[in-house]
Design brief:
heterodimer, A: about 160 residues, alpha+beta, Ubiquitin-like (UB roll), DNA polymerase, domain 1, 2 domains, five-stranded mixed sheet, 5 helices, 5 strands, about 15% strand, B: about 1000 residues, Aldehyde Oxidoreductase, domain 3, Aldehyde Oxidoreductase, domain 4, 6 domains, seven-stranded mixed sheet, six-stranded mixed sheet, 29 strands, about 35% helix, about 20% strand, globular
Chain lengths: ~160, ~1000
Amino acid sequence: MHKQEPITFHVNGHAATLDIAADAPLLNVLRNDLCLNGPKFGCGLGECGACTVLVDGVAARSCVIPLAGVAGRNVTTLDGLAQEGRLDPVQQAFIDEQGAQCGYCMNGMIMTLKALLLRSPSPTEDEIRSELDFNLCRCGTHVEIMRAALRAVELQRQGAAQ
Amino acid sequence: MSAPLPRQMAGPLATGGAASLRHARLALPPRLDWQQSLYTGARLQGLDSEAALRCPGAPQVVQRRHLVAVVADSDEQARQACSQLRLRWSDATPQDGTPRVRAAQTLHARGQDSSGLHDITMDAHYQWRDGESASSTLSSSPFPATGIVAMASPMGANLRLDLPFGNPALIAMEVAALLSLPVAQVEVRSHRPPASAQERSAASDVAGVVALLALQCGQAVSLVLEPTNFASSPTSLQLHGELDQDGRLGSYHLHIEQDAPPPPLAWLLTETAYALEDASDPRDGAALASPYDWQALEIIGPQGAAIPLAASTFAQEIFFDELAQRIGEDAVQYRLQHLPDAHGAALVRSVAEGAGWNGPARQVQGDILRGRGFAYASTLEQEQGQPVQSWSAWVADVEYDRASGELSVTRVTAGHDQRAGTTAAAAHAADDLLDEKQRALLGEQARLAMAQTLAPDQGFDAWSRELRPLPGQASASLPQVDLIDGGTTPALRDIQLKAGGAFTLPAAAAISNAIHAATGVRLREAPFSGEQIRLALEHQEGSGQRPGGWRRLRKYGWLGVAAAALGATLTLAMPWRAEIAPVARPAADLYSAATIERGRRVALAGDCAVCHTAPGGVANAGGHALQTPFGTVFSTNITPDEKTGIGNWSYTAFERAMREGIHRDGRHLYPAFPYTAFAKISEADMQSLYAYLMAQPAVSSTPPENDLRFPFNMRPLLAGWNLLFHKNEVFQPDPDRSALWNRGAYLVEGAGHCTACHSPRNALGAEQGGRQYLGGGTVDGWEAPALTALSKSPTPWTEDELFSYLRSGFSDRHGIAAGPMAPVVAELAQLPAGDVRAIAHYLASFQAPTTSTTTPAPITTSSLNESQKLSQANGKRLFQGACAACHIEGTGPTLFGVRPSLRVNTNLHSDTPDNLIHVILHGIREPANPALGYMPGFANSFSDAQVGDLLAYLRSEFATGKPAWEGVPESIARSRAQAGH
């Protein structure tokens, strides 16, 4: 890789310009350099989903994307999901339904579901299952997570109707 | 690495920003054209957006009249969806006979009009299409190849626009008028003012469209607009001249019609009336006037349009030639009789003398018609605050081949002179002659001017104009230019050299006059081509083609080739070659921006930087290790550093290295450097490449020594290799194939050197041809698949699939560009789309029309032994855990990047598992394009046995019917030993 320029991208709506090695994993940059600790380090190989963020509104596993991969793009982390002090419907739903046990997978569950709702506002239960299929949870909280997901759809629908 | 960021940065970053930004792409009509402010380009007749709307990124199609755009979550998604739109465009509105109404005014007049009182009257009509406006911006500030990005955000009742450059007040007014908003509600922020007329119009183009889209979507929208190619309407010139019987000049009228510049794109495409006045400076009428002593002269032209001087010179100098011919006078003598300007007359004399002018010099030799023409121009312009008068005179010799229809300029004698205002001429000093560098620059300007006049672009080495205007479409047949020095003062000459000035103004007329001398055909529309002459001659003679001529020409052609081949053989077989003396590095400003830009494209097509850049090193400084069966070769430093690079290489030395594989010092270069392909590069491209490389920053860097086994470390042996395997010949187009096919063939076989990886090599490392041409090879441990009918791909490649793959690095029916192909695609992405299309077109011509592959009997599970079954079952579990999130079929999450289907992936169907193993172990860390996404490498988390199990499963699951791979453990070991690409 050639001598590089600083890399600029948008994080949670704000521009960030960083002079960091272009191949540094996005997850490390978010957590270590930008102090955004929503995304978690799980497997480091894109298998478990704990590090999920949104890149241009699409779910992305930030442990396998280097910083160069998001140059000029919009990254949204769990930390930036709340708008004007109000939790996102997906966040609210996981609290309402007690979707967390140890909570380590929670970031990935919420962000993956958020990405799904961005592209399809009222998914079926099957679509939700398929979307969350590769977000791993070790505590066995799957039932609560599914309930939270369905509630998120409902909350978002109500929010849109208002 | 920068200092750690202060912790408080987490504050603002942790809160959500404004409403999310959407990205737009515009689907432009195939032809844009306008008259006055009316759109006359292709009209939208049908729009089917069904396929586009199924694309990812929640695409939304916006259409207003002929403006069609797709808005999606990311730029790639918008571009992808945009490419899925099915649009039906009408061909253009034909010239439907509605008269054009223009406001005309007298731009200049002198003398007492005495129309109708003379014995001889002549009328003629000329047309000029201006190529100059495009080239003039090239040196100032070229557009970024990727286009201009602008953003529009609705903020309550207001609309905010962010532009890279532009005049905010003007754009706010334009946008307000377009969208019927009060001006106060449009806020425009631009990074800097526009640097050229082209930038000014580009800013208006992008602003109007993005504003319209943002308003339509009610959301912030970002738009990337690539530079548009308007089909400019020509300048039309009507001339009327009157003479008395003795040839004295009487009344003269020049009527010029020229359209105003086009209204901005959004207005044009939505057919909205554009009412704002254009602010460009009208040309002073006197500058357009004929230099000859007409008794009365009148110039009528449009208001407010900048009429190109080249157009008026073109028309008036041909007209004068026609007058001279009409009364039987010599073109130069007649001019001298009527040129009141003594200085100009002196220049005309010295150029005519220098050229040995002796009339039109018509010569017929078989099918070859020869002739010469003359033209003159003088102008008075303001340069850097002072009036500068310049004179220029040209004699052009042309040759037209009736058999092939080819037109070439064989010789040009040109002279120019320039003075400040009316001050007396400075004394001619001995050191006042043109120096080498100035001669080279003037010669290049002259060739560029001729290339613009001669016709457009059908040559195999013509680069398309899509990215940036590229005026240097010089064809190889352009001549050397003899310069006659007029005795300019040096300071002024520098201005002249930079500005271009009047020097090239007479070029087009001189060529047209020469064509008339040679063929009797008057070309009154520029640019012209051999085709125009052929049609006119056929019209004159009323006879068809003459096949006899062809045959004769072919025969001579063969003799020439045979002689050349003999010469080449003798030179190539010499084991020791002479050193070519080092020279000083050419000055940075020796070559024009156009030449350097052309060279940049040749370098991109040739992927120079891919091999000549070490991992993590500086571009082109060498040191990249190439593994060959004979040992390791390290690429050299090709930056213009005089000690460690090629800074002291003359063009002759560079060309010898490129075509013959000989170092400047006479050493043979190893054919790991594909001079066998580069020999096919045309002369013009080769020179541009040299210009480009020499214009790059010099880097001092010495690559490691090669590590080759005996006897391969004996360089003189390569003389014999060259004799056996190297043909030093420039690419010859196949006349039976299309221009597109030939262009593709030129790029694939020449600069692109595709065969270097994609053709198999023999035991001595030479590429195999014939049926094995592009039949697949290996490089750096990667398999380079066959590009012909020998392809193992489960679905045949089409031209469109190839185009998409080469342009974006991904084809959803074949897979992703990885390994050594990824940087190649990254370089191709910077080439004009037309050239990538040509490559795709050429390669597609090798695909078997139908797939009649003999499929072996499917391997059924029952024929597997227990350990194979176990291996596949283990592999399946590994796949579920490690791969399925991105590669599962049908279900699963939508994740950033593409989701390559393994079922159609060529690598799973190949005879060897090497590419698949590389990707599994090392991942894809530097994709051809970041939008494709990334893949982690599993070298540190899978054991060899696990990789083997995974391969067994992948092969049986996704390449149904193909036998299991053999030698898998050895392949895995080889790949582990090798760093990822």
